[in-house]
Amino acid sequence: MDLIITVLGLLALMVGGISCQGVYAPPTVRIIHSGHACNVEEERHTERVYTIREGETLELTCLVTGHPRPQIRWTKTAGSVSDRFQDSSVFNDTLHIAKILRNQGGRYYCKAENGLGSPAIKSIRVDVYYLDNPVITVHQSIGEAKEQFYYERTVFLRCVANSNPPVRYSWHRGREVLTQGSDKGVEIYEPFFTQQGETKILKLKNLRPQDYANYSCIASVRNVCGIPDRSVIFGLTNKTASPSIKLLVEDPIVVNPGQTVSLVCITTGGEPTPTLTWVSSNDSLPQRSVVKGGTLTLPAITSDEAGVYSCVASNNVGNPAKKSTTIVVRALKKGRFWITPDPYHNDDNIQIGREVKISCQVEATPPEELTFSWLKNGRSLRSSERMVITQTDPDISPGTTNLDIIDLKFTDFGTYTCVAALKGGGIPEISIDVNISSTTVPPSLTVPRGKSPLVAREGDTVELECLVSGKPKPIILWSRADKEAPMPDGSMQMESYDGVLRIVNVSREMTGSYRCQTSQYNGFNVKPREAVVELIVQYPPTVEPVHMEVRQGLGRPVVMTCRVLRAHPSRVLRFEWLLSNRLLHAGAFDPHKDETEYTIRSLNREGWGEYTCNVINEAGAGKCTFQVTGKAYPPEFYYDTYSPLWQNRPRVYGFKLQWTQMNPGAVDRIVAYRLGIRQVGLQRWWEQEIPVGDTIGKGELMTHNLTELIKPESYEVRLTPITRFGEGDSTIRIITYSAPINPHLREFHCSFEEEAICMFTQDKNDDFDWTRHSAATRDTKYTPNTGPSADRTGSKQGFYMYIETSRPRKEGDQARLVSPFFNIALKNSYGLTNPSAYCFGFFYHMYGKHIGTLNAFLKQKGQMTLEAPVWSLSGNQGDRWKQAKVSIHPTSSFQIVLEGIRGPGIEGDIAIDDITLEEGECRDPPPNISANALSTSSHIWLLCTTLVLTLLEGQR
Q1: In what order do the strands lie in the sheet with 197-204?
Q2: Cα 250 to Cα 261: distance, rounded to the nearest angstrom
Q3: 3-class SS shares of the chain: helix, strand, coil, % to 5
Q4: Would the CA dihedral through 872, 878, 879, 880 be positive or negative?
Q5: Which residue among 422, 681, 735, 936 is least packed, with the fewest CB closer than 10 Å?
Q6: DSSP 955
Q7: Is 541 within 8 Å of 621 (Cβ atoms)?
C-alpha cells in the first residue's frame, strides 16, 4: 500500500491552473538568530546586540524577500568574513560559527541583492562574553628611613583577569573577606586598566605575622551567560622571593654543523618554585628541539638555528629572571676573487714591470677564526718585498685577503691559489684559483649581429645574448635597462656564466631593453663593460567578447560585433566570420575602426549555432565566439509565496509552486513547461508537461499546485521552459515539509489550505459557521449566481472560507470566524510609548444579488463584547476577488474576528481567502480591483491508465 501511495504521490501532481501577476520586487532582509545566544537586545540605541558565550555556536540567519531570489553575502565590520569562515558559510542564508572566539565578536552585516533597486543590508552586533582564570603577581618594596632605625617592607598583590563584560574582584585572606577599611594594615585599590587588562591591587603595609597567609582573588562577571566565577590562590610566606637562575654553559657557544648542543638552566632561588621556559631570537625554537625541565637540546644543529637562546624563570613574584647565551655555528661560504691592474697607470691590462693585485673574499662564521694562505703553482707562498700578503681591515671589507705583486716579472706568471679555513678545522676549506699570464686580459662585451632588436612571439622561448671575452671570463649580470622592473625570475638582477639570458614562455610585459654587464668579481676589478639588447614581443589581437550567448527568436535580426582591444603589431591584417567551420565572410580590417560586425537579417533554424570571428595579425589570431540559440532563459522560482504548503489528509501534503519567466520575450513564445519531480535521495525523476496557452509577460506569476506529496519527505523540483527551439534552461529548487504551526506575528498568513485553518475557530455564540471549500469539490449547482469559482489565486484546487446562505439560513444570521491570539512586542523595557501598528489584510468575494455584510473586528484580551468594526462592506461587489487592508493599533494581546451576515436571499454567499497580518502601518491600501487571474488547464503525464483511474477514484 505504501508503494502505491508513493507512486501515486509522484505521479499525481494536481494542476490548479497557471495564473500571472507582476511580482518583481527589490530585496528586503531581516536577521534572526538561533544557536546559543544568552541574551538578545532587539533595540538598544537603534542597534541589535546578540550576546553569546565564548566557545558556543553562533548561528545567524538572513531572511530575505524579493524576486528574483536575492543573492546573500555576509560581511563583518565592513570587511569580508571569508578569511574567518568557510566560503560556503559566507554566501549562505545562515552564518554558522562553531566554537566562537572572542576576536570574532563585532558587527555582522547581511547584504541581499537581486539587481532591482539598492541592495538590502541589515546588521547585528555580536558581543562575545568570556572570563579567563585570574593571575596573581606579587611585588614588594623595601624602604629605609634616614637617621631612623626603622625598616618597612610593603607587598603588593596584583590580580588580573581578561573578561567581557568588565570583571569584578574580591579578595579573601583564608576565609576572611578583605574590604577597604576592614584591616588597617591592608589597602585595596580600585580596579584600573594596565596593558595586561583590568587590575585589582591588594597592598599589605609593613608586613605583620598575620599577613603570611593564603590569599584568594575571585573574579566575577555576575554569572552573565552562565559564566561561573573564577579564583586563584597565592600563599604568601616569609620565604616568598622572586626567581634567580644560572646557565651551566659558556657564552658564546661555537659549534660545527651537525653537532648536538645542550643548554642547561637551573634555578638558584625563588619561592614558589619558578617555572623555566626557553625562548629564541629566531621567534620560535627549532622544530627538532627538545625541552626537558631546564635543559634545551638541539640535535644536529644547522646554520639557520644559530642565534641567541634565553632561559626565563617566572613564579609571579617580582620580575621574571632571564639568562641568555649565543650559539655560533661555524661556516665558510661564497668564495670570490678579482684582479686589480696597477692603480697608478690608466691601463686595464696587466703588463710586465707594473703592479698587479689579486684579492680573495669569503664569508666566515665566526669571522675571527678565519685564516688565509696563498699558493703559487701548488707551493706555499710567503709574504716578501715583491709578494706582499695582507688581510683587509674587517670593518672595511670583512673576510678579504690581498696578494700584491710588485714589479711583475715573466717568472711571476702562474696559478695563484687562495685557501680560506677556520681555526680548529672541522669545516671544509675553500680554494680559489687565479691564473696570471700573458693571456690574462680584461673583459670586453658585444651583442652579436642580428641579436638586437630580437623579435619573438608571446609564449616562445627566447635567448638574449651578449658575447663576452677576456681571461678570466667574468660572470655577466642581466637587468632591465629601460625601467626599474624585476627580471623574469622576480629578482632585480640575474647572473649568467655564458652571457646568455634564457626566458621561457615570454609575455608581452617583457618587451623592452635589457642590460648585460660584467661583474667586478671573478674577473678584473675594472670599470664594468655593458651592452643593451632590445626585446620586442609580438602577440595576437586581444578581442572581446571572448564568448557571448545570443538568444533570439526565429525571424528576428541578430547583430554580432567583435572588438579589438590591443595587438602587436597593431596593424591587423584581416578578419573572417565562420558558422561552425563554414566561412561566411572575410576581408581586410578597416584601419580606422577597432571592430568588425556581422548581421543576420532574419534568423532561421539553420542560423542557430556557434559563430566565430577570427581577427588575425602576424603573431596569430584573436577569437570572438557567439553562441546563437533559441533556448529560453530559466524560470525564476518565487520564494515569497504565503503559506505555500497545505495538508488535507494525514499522510500527504500539497505545495503551491510559483515562478516567473526570465526575459520571456527574448526568444519564441513558451508553449509549455516540463515539470520534473523526485524525492530527495532517490534517482528516478517523474515528469509531466504543463501547457501554456497565452504569451507570458515579464513579471507574470505562474502557479502550479503539487499534491499527493508524502509526509515528511522533501522533493527536488525541476522546471524547464519549452519553445519551438526545444528545451531551455532549467531551474531546480527543493521543497521541504514542515509541520503546520502558528506563524510568527511579523509574517502571519493563512490561505486555508490546511484542515487546521491556521488555528482559526468558529464562534460558539453566533448563528452558523463558516465553511472551508474548494471550487473543485463544491457543488456550484446548489446555489447558482453566487460565490467564487476558484480560490484567490485562480486555482480550482485551492481552498477558501465562505458562508453558505441557503436554507435554513435566514436574513440577519451571523457567522463569526475568530483568529488565534497574537502577542504584541514591547518596544522597550519600560513599556509601550505608542500603540503597536499592524496591517490586517485579506481577500474577499461578495457576488450575488442577496449579498449581506462582511465585518472585521479587533478584539483585545479581556474585552467581553465586540466594538465597532475596523472594516465593513455590504452589497454585491461583482464576480471577482478584491483585497482589503486596514491598519490596527492594539495595546494588548488580540484576536481578529471576521463576521459574515446573511442577506435577504440565498444568492448571498460571501468568501474570504489569504488573510495576512504584518507589523507596521498599511503602506498602500489596495484599490477595489480584481485579484483573479486567467488560468489554463494542464494535464498530468501518467505511466498507465490504471493509475489515472485509481487516482481519480481516490480523489472523489
Answers
A1: 135-144, 151-160, 197-204, 186-194
A2: 12
A3: 5, 50, 45
A4: negative
A5: 681
A6: H
A7: yes
Which contacts qualify for 492-499: CB closer than 8 Å, 24 or more apart?
Answer: 495/519, 499/445, 499/465, 499/466, 499/467, 499/468
pLDDT at 247 over 60: yes
Calpha distance 494→489 (Å, rounded): 8
User: Up-side HSE of residue 194: CA atoms within 13 Å toward CB?
Assistant: 10
What are residue 235's DSSP bridge partners? Answer: 214
Compute how many other C-beta atoms are within 10 angstroms of the C-beta atom of residue 582: 8
Cα 821 off chain centre by: 42
Alpha carbons 287 and 547: distance in angstroms, whole number? 51
Q: Does residue 94 contact residue 61 with C-beta atoms inside 8 Å?
A: yes
Cα angle value 689/694/696 (rounded, 5°): 85
Residue 676 burial class via C-beta count within 10 angstroms: exposed 0-12, middle 13-18, buried 19 and up: middle
Closest C-alpha to 807, from 787, 783, 779, 788: 783
Q: Check: CB of residue 745 under 8 Å from CB of residue 868.
A: no
Q: How confident is the model at residue 640 (pLDDT cuts 50, 70, 90)?
A: confident
Amino acid found at 590: D
Q: Which is nearest to 897 in space by CA: 783, 839, 820?
A: 820
φ, ψ for residue 383, nearest 5 deg: -70, 140
| CA gap 230, 133 in Å, rounded | 6
**Cell matching residue 754:** 490546511
CB 861 within 8 A of CB 841: no
DSSP 317: B
pLDDT at 345 over 80: no
Q: Which of 344-353, 535-544, 576-585 has the lowest mean pLDDT?
A: 344-353
Q: Do the beta carbons of residue 751 and residue 643 sit within 8 Å?
A: yes
Helix (H, G, I), strand (E, B) or coil at 210: helix
**pLDDT the model gives residue 752:** 87
Per the document, the length of the chain is 956
Cell matching residue 533: 639588447
Amino acid at 445: L
3-state secondary structure of 225: helix
Distance CA 131, CA 228 (A): 8
Mean confidence (pLDDT) of the chain:
84
Contact residues for 937 (Cβ-Cβ < 8 A; gap 6+): 15, 17, 691
d(CA 191, CA 182) in angstroms, rounded, equals: 18
- Only one residue has cell 566554537, namely 99
This prediction has a pTM of 0.63
Q: At 527, which helix (H) or strand (E)?
A: none
Residues 797-840 have pLDDT tens digits of: 888 999 988 888 999 999 999 988 887 654 443 333 466 788 89
